[in-house]
Amino acid sequence: MYAPTAAQGYCLVRRGSSIPRGTAEEGAPGAGTKVLADDASMLKRPSASGCGSTPSSVPAAVRSGWRSTEDSLIVIGASTGGTEALKLLLLALPETAPAILVVQHMPQTFTGSFARRLDDSCRIHVKEAEHGEAVCPGTAYIAPGHSHLLAKRGDAGYIVELSAAAPVNRHRPSVDVLFHAVAACAGHHAIGVILTGMGKDGAAGMLALKHAGAWTIAQDEASCVVYGMPREAVALKAVDEVVPLAEIGARLMSRLCMARRSA
Q1: 236 with 207: CB under 8 angstroms?
Q2: At what angle do helices 82-91 and 245-262 cross, to 10 degrees?
Q3: What is the β-pairing status of strands 215-219 and 190-194?
Q4: How far apart, in whole angstroms, are the C-alpha atoms of residue 255 and residue 178?
Q5: What is the rounded distance in angstroms from the CA atom of residue 156 to the CA atom of residue 135?
Q6: Is there a catalytic annotation at residue 188?
Q7: Where are the alpha helices (DSSP H) in 33-156?
Q8: Catalytic residue among 171, 201, 220, 223
Q9: What number does CATH give the domain 68-214+225-262?
Q10: SS3 of 84, please?
Q11: How far does CA 179 lie from the centroid of its chain?
C-alpha cells in the first residue's frame, strides 16, 4: 500500500507570465498550499476506444508503418509547463508507438483526471499507472501523484512498479527515479525525453540512460515554459539531441524506424 505525500502546490503557467514564489513548480512544495479535489464534471468522458481521430497536423514521418516491439520503451519527464507539452507530444504519436512511461510533477488528486483527458484526445491509450501491471505498446502510463514510477523486466516484458520511497529532488514521483530504473532494465532499447520544467530532476537519470545506450532528447529552450530540467541535462552532456517541442513526436518515430531497419 502506498502512502500519499502531503498536499503540494500546483500551478499552470503561460510563457512569459510571472510565477509566484513557493508555487513555481507543478508539484513543488508550497507552505500552506492546498490541493483542491478534482472536479469530475469538468472532464470529457473517454470514448470506448480511448482514442480520438488522427490529427491532420501529424507529420508524415509519424504516420509511418513502424511497429513497436516489446523491448522498445519511451520515458518522459516534465514539470512546469509539462501538462500542455505532454499533450502536444502524445497527440503526435500513432497507435503503433512503443510503451511510454511518464513522470509529470503533479499532486495525486490531478494525475488520474490528467490521464483520462489525454486518453480522450490521443490515438494511443493513456492511463494512470498501476502497480504490477504489464507494460503494453501503444499505451502511455502516467505516474500517480503519490508514488515513484519504475519499471522492471518480467517474463513477458516490462512491468510497472510504484514506490512510496522518500521524495527525490523534492519530488515523488521523481523523473530521476524513473530514468534510472529504465536505464537498468531497458538500456539501449529506451529513448529518454526531458521536457519543460524548473529544477534539475531528471538530469542525472538522463545521463544514466545515455550511459546505458539509450537515445536521449531534450526540449529546446525556445519552446519551453521553463528551461530548467532540459538545461541541466544538457549541461551534464546527457542529451543526444535538442529538439523543438513540435518536432519531438516525429523525431521519436523516425529514430525508432531507423532502429528497426538496422536490427
Answers
A1: yes
A2: 50
A3: parallel
A4: 21
A5: 10
A6: no
A7: 82-91, 108-121
A8: 201
A9: 3.40.50.180
A10: helix
A11: 10
Burial class (CB in 10 A: 0-12, 13-18, 19+), 126: buried
Residue pair 230/224 in contact (Cβ under 8 Å)? The answer is yes
> Residue 217 phi/psi, 5° resolution?
-130, 135
Task: Kindly report the number of other CB atoms within 10 A of residue 44's CB atom.
Answer: 10
pTM: 0.76
DSSP assigned state of 145: T
Per-residue pLDDT reduced to its tens digit, 239-259: 999 999 999 999 999 888 876
Instruction: Give the residue extent of every domain in the chain.
Output: 68-214+225-262
Helix axes 203-211, 175-185, angle to 10 degrees: 10
Question: pLDDT band for position 34 (50/70/90)?
Answer: very low
- For 141, the grid coordinates are 502510463
Q: Any catalytic annotation for residue 148?
A: no
Is 105 noted as a catalytic residue in this protein? yes
Q: Which of 79, 147, 174, 223 is catalytic?
A: 79
Query: Which uninterrupted H or E stretch holds 102?
Result: strand 99-104
Which residue shows C-alpha cell 520511497?
165
- Out of 105, 125, 148, 180, which one is annotated catalytic? 105
Q: Are 126 and 90 in contact (CB under 8 A)?
A: yes
Q: Which amino acid is at 6?
A: A
